[in-house]
Amino acid sequence: MPLVSDKHFIPHDSSASFGTRVQKAVQLSVLAAGLLLGLGGASSYAADPAGEWVRPSGSSKIRISSCGSSLCGKIIWVRDPRNDVHNPDPTKRDKSLVGLLTVHSMKPTKKTDEWAGKVYNAEDGKTYKGVMTMPSPNKLKLEGCVLGGLICKGETWNRIK
Questions:
Q1: pLDDT digit string, tens, across residues 100-115
Q2: CA-CA distance, 17 to 22, in Å (whole number)?
Q3: pTM of this prediction?
């Protein structure tokens, strides 16, 4: 015969005292509550790449923000100011890297905390298929890929704001 009702799974143990049965019921309740809280706590954070980031080398800072229905990244500071000398468009080669959009059209993919779009690499003047992920709230991994994503190279930026 159950301790509380037929809907609970606490079987009556005739050899256990009433106090022992109540103690087991409380332990099961605490365990169930802990599991529920644990599951809620294990859910992933809502990744938000918007903010300011610094490259691992410290050579530049990039601001990721909304641009329409996607995310974009603009260089907001460079340690050694220079122009976009490798740009394939000769008319843009005399423009400063500060203010340059290097991350374009990043939209969420079907994977959690991942966005896909385009990445402009000012070091070689080429634009690549880009993938942006957030391994943690203060880390942003940006990769540029070729051959349909078969070969990717990137780095992990650190959040500064």
A1: 999 999 999 999 999 9
A2: 9
A3: 0.70
